[in-house]
């Protein structure tokens, strides 16, 4: 699924922001 890739990218960006 394509939206999964978008979700993963957003998830990683969120983690980088938290650290």
Automatic annotation (TrEMBL):
Q: What superkingdom heads the lineage?
A: Eukaryota
This protein's name = Uncharacterized protein
This chain's source organism reads Nymphaea colorata
């Amino acid at each position: 699924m394509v939206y999964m890739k978008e979700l993963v990218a957003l998830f990683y960006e969120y983690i980088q922001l938290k650290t």
